[in-house]
Each structure stands twice: as structure tokens, then as C-alpha cells.
Design goal:
The chain is α+β, with helices and mostly antiparallel strands and 227 residues long. The chain is built from 6 helices and 9 strands, in the order βββααααββββαββα. Helix content is 46%, strand content 21%.
Length: 227
């Protein structure tokens, strides 16, 4: 692996220029219609968040002006009475709707950023395999000791069963959107980890073969077990 090369897929690039290191970069698969839908959602999500959050500084300024008698007392009293009578709606908006809207939107924005600038970066050395999900502001890295790795293989994951708790629902949404899924699986400390989002069988086998070939050239004591 003495040069950079493109594998059989334009999504996958390998680089073996650095001695003792192999780098495999996997670009996202892009569907134009899905990207347009995500972009529309991100625009409306941003408008909704800004509109909701703009009430907070507005209310703070209003209270300060009333406290300093910069506004007519009757006007302050009228507004405060209105707010007091509308507290259930305020609680629903700022206590439930805004947090949920921000939470769900953050996941969608993460996917949107992945579609534009994201990539998976797999780096293999004689002692470590690192898998990076490179997304602006959402960088995620997992590192594995080669000696504890085994059974790198093509193994597409079936769709998960939705969990009933909040954390499980968040992970279910991320999984359905592509993260924590992949066509390549590897065993590490009795757990299965995946990468290679939406790779076809041919693409996944190409990546597995490339990593295997690299590891076969390094010290046998530091290489992971294929089985």
C-alpha cells in the first residue's frame, strides 16, 4: 500500500502512504430527495428554535424595564396578568415543546451535516484500530486494541426494536438515521461494533479485505484474530 488509491467504489478511498498505518475514508451515500427534505426541515427547525428562544431575552428585558419603572405601571400589570393566566401554555411550550423540538432537531441536523461534510475514517495500525465519525461539531471516535479484536466481516445489521425509555428512543432514532449501524462488524471484548454506513456488500468486502491485507503485513503478535 505505497500509494493512495480509489477502490471499486467512489465512496471509499484508501491511503497507505504513512508507514505502519492504513487509512480508509468512507464518504456518505447521498440521496438528493432525502437531502432536500432534510434541508427544508433544518430551515423550519432553526426558525422555530429562534422564535421560541427569542421570548426569553424579550421577557428579561421587559421585567427589567418594569422593575426600573421605564414602562407604564398599568402596562406592566396587564402583561403580567396575561402571563399568569397563560402559564399552562407557557409550561407546555417551554417545558415540553421546545426541549423536544431541540432534541429531535439536533439529531436531524447531525444527519444533515453528515450528508454535507461528514465521513467515516478508519485508521489501522499494528496496535490500534480507530473508527471516527467525522461531522462538524459532532466528532465521534472509537478506538480498539488490535489484540482484542476479532472476526472483522461483512454483516449488515437488521433494523432495531424500539426501546420504551428515552435513551433507547434516542438511540433508535440515531440508528434508523444511519449512526451506530454499518455493513461491517467486528467483535471487541465480547461486544459487536459496526461501521461502514450503508455500504453495499461489494464495498464492505473491499474494506474488510483492505484492512486484512494490511494487518497481515504487521507483527503477528499484534494482529487481531480473523475468527
Amino acid at each position: 500500500m505505497g500509494k493512495s488509491e480509489t477502490t471499486q467504489s467512489d465512496r471509499i478511498r484508501t491511503n497507505g502512504n504513512t508507514p505502519g498505518q492504513l487509512e480508509v475514508t468512507i464518504a456518505p451515500i447521498r440521496y438528493v430527495s432525502f437531502f432536500i427534505a432534510l434541508s427544508i426541515f433544518v430551515i423550519f427547525w432553526s426558525i422555530g428554535v429562534l422564535a421560541a428562544l427569542s421570548w426569553i431575552p424579550a421577557l428579561i428585558i421587559f421585567f427589567l424595564l418594569c422593575q426600573q419603572s421605564q414602562l407604564p405601571h398599568e402596562h406592566c400589570t396587564q402583561v403580567l396578568s396575561k402571563l399568569a393566566s397563560d402559564w399552562p401554555m407557557l409550561l407546555l411550550t417551554f417545558g415540553i415543546w421546545v426541549p423536544v423540538w431541540c432534541l429531535v432537531g439536533t439529531v436531524i441536523v447531525r444527519v444533515w451535516l453528515y450528508y454535507i461534510w461528514g465521513r467515516e475514517r478508519v485508521v489501522a495500525t499494528p496496535h490500534c484500530l480507530s473508527i471516527e465519525l467525522v461531522i462538524p461539531w459532532f466528532h465521534q471516535v472509537r478506538r480498539f486494541n488490535i489484540m482484542e479484536l476479532s472476526n472483522l466481516r461483512f454483516s449488515p445489521e437488521p433494523l432495531p426494536v424500539q426501546s420504551r425509555n428515552l435513551y433507547g428512543s434516542w438511540k433508535f432514532l440515531e440508528t434508523m438515521l444511519g449512526f451506530d449501524r454499518g455493513s461491517i462488524a467486528v467483535e471487541y471484548l465480547k461486544e459487536t461494533y459496526r461501521f461502514g454506513i450503508a455500504l453495499s456488500e461489494a464495498e464492505a468486502l473491499s474494506v474488510v479485505s483492505t484492512i486484512d491485507e494490511f494487518l497481515e503485513k504487521v507483527d503477528e503478535k499484534s494482529r487481531y484474530s480473523k475468527q
